[in-house]
Specification:
Oligomer: single chain
Mean pLDDT: 95
Shape: globular
Radius of gyration: 16 Å
Order of helices and strands: EHEEEHEHEHE
Low-confidence stretches: none
Strand content: 15-25%
Distance between the termini: 39 Å
Length: about 160
């Protein structure tokens, strides 16, 4: 399967029962939180394109055009909620997404600092139980995600 050349959809095709959720470890420094959230979102869309291309249209990317004809696409019409919570909650969300066969990505402390080679080496030497999850991004139906994220708070 391949992703269509044009990933945007017509506004009439937006399905509001879907949403994006980024859940971050509480009290991360602002720069670390923004970095983690950015990597999570990039990874989530890349993973959808590679592994579940049928979900890409469900992500509802629209072609926003301003009054002067300037293009501001692709931007999703769907909610992207950024939450924060305890480290154990982030880990549990990742596991629930994995077991529930939801589309997700994760980002760990081991993926920061130094070069990508340093990061690959560091994570390669860290057992799964010792990974420090900074965040998880999940895409799916609101009804499924709300159940998994009810303990989290909105990031402020």
């Amino acid at each position: 399967m391949t992703v269509p050349d044009d990933i945007t959809v017509d506004p009439s095709e937006v399905d509001p029962q879907y949403r994006f959720v980024v859940a971050l470890q509480a009290k991360l420094p602002a720069g670390v939180a923004v970095n983690a959230a950015s990597h999570l979102c990039l990874g989530l869309v890349a993973r959808a394109a590679a592994e579940r291309p049928a979900l890409v249209p469900k992500m509802s990317f629209l072609d926003f055009t301003d009054a002067d004809g300037g293009n501001h696409a692709p931007i999703s019409a769907l909610s992207l909620v950024v939450l924060e919570g305890r480290p154990a909650w982030v880990r549990r969300l990742r596991e629930a997404a994995r077991l529930g066969d939801l589309l997700y990505t994760d980002f760990t402390a081991e993926m920061t600092g130094g070069t990508f080679a340093d990061q690959l080496d560091r994570i390669g030497k860290t057992s799964a139980e010792d990974l420090d999850y900074y965040g998880v991004a999940v895409f799916g139906k609101r009804s499924e995600l709300d159940v998994l994220t009810k303990k989290f708070s909105l990031l402020r």
